[in-house]
Design brief:
Blueprint (H helix, E strand, L loop, with lengths): L3 E7 L9 E8 L15 H12 L5 E8 L2 H15 L19 H20 L1 H20 L4 H19 L2 H19 L2 H19 L2 H19 L2 H21 L2 H10 L1
Antiparallel strand pairs: 1-2, 1-3
């Protein structure tokens, strides 16, 4: 029984009538699955199918040959893709993203080319500058769009989750901390920014101190820090020495002779 087949999907549009757009190998209803646009993974081929649907046209499905062996079906698929060529390599008209067969060799070539291209672009300072500017413009446009509050909350949640996963990496956390510290130092050298930041911090702290929940959390954090510090013998020793020195100084201030000597020294 010839279960396997190789098929071609052809363009139904008048200007491109009969042009091969996709070559595949399948069995049962595999070829018809391409007509369910919502499940397509290939973005370029999905666009093509959507365009045909908008025009009220259905691409022609041609079963080229049937085989009892899957290997023979794969072999013909590879030959047809090589014959018609791929759009992503500018060698033909097909929306296929691999060279056929098991599909691995084609995707490996695409990945290698993409990596080489990105390496070259990152090495070019002019290209990096243009890319940064375009990204900035794109993000400004996206942020300017009206979004529902639920969408903003979801985006914020996703961003926090992403940052949390990144900060699990000690190298990233250290580099991020150094970059943030350097950036804040640079900003605080500007007197206008420093004054505005101080004002904002003051307002924030006043608002937070009116919140009983915040006061409770802060009190607990201070208590935990004190316990942690007191558990360190070296810190506890310095703390005792400081308290003794403070006690001695306060006792000395009560002595009139010491007060006279201190006034004379000033």
């Amino acid at each position: 029984m010839k279960r396997f087949y190789t098929y071609v999907i052809r363009d139904p549009r008048p200007n491109h009538l009969g042009v091969p757009r996709y070559v595949g190998k399948g069995q049962n209803h595999r070829a018809r699955s391409h007509f369910n646009i919502s499940k397509l993974q290939n973005s370029n081929f999905k666009w093509f199918m959507s365009e045909c649907q908008k025009l009220g046209l259905e691409p022609k499905l041609e079963i080229v040959a049937r085989f009892s062996s899957e290997k023979l079906a794969f072999k013909l698929e590879i030959e047809l893709i090589a014959k018609y060529g791929r759009l992503d390599f500018c060698t033909g008209t097909l929306y296929n993203r691999t060279d056929g067969g098991d599909g691995v060799s084609g995707s490996i070539k695409v990945a290698e080319r993409a990596r080489e291209m990105m390496t070259r672009l990152r090495a070019d300072p002019e290209a990096a500058k243009i890319n940064a500017e375009m990204s900035s413009i794109r993000m400004r446009k996206i942020n300017a769009l009206p979004r529902p509050e639920r969408w903003r909350r979801n985006q914020s949640k996703a961003a926090r989750a992403c940052l949390a996963s990144l900060h699990c990496d000690p190298k990233f956390a250290k580099a991020h901390s150094e970059r943030s510290s350097e950036r804040m130092k640079r900003l605080h050298r500007d007197p206008i920014f420093a004054k505005a930041a101080s004002k904002r911090s003051s307002k924030t702290m006043l608002r937070l101190r009116k919140d009983p929940k915040f006061n409770k959390i802060q009190s607990k954090a201070a208590s935990d820090q004190a316990q942690r510090l007191n558990s360190n013998p070296e810190i506890r020793k310095r703390s005792v020495a400081t308290r003794k020195a403070r006690g001695w100084f306060l006792a000395a201030r009560r002595d009139p002779a010491f007060a006279i000597e201190e006034a004379a020294a000033e």
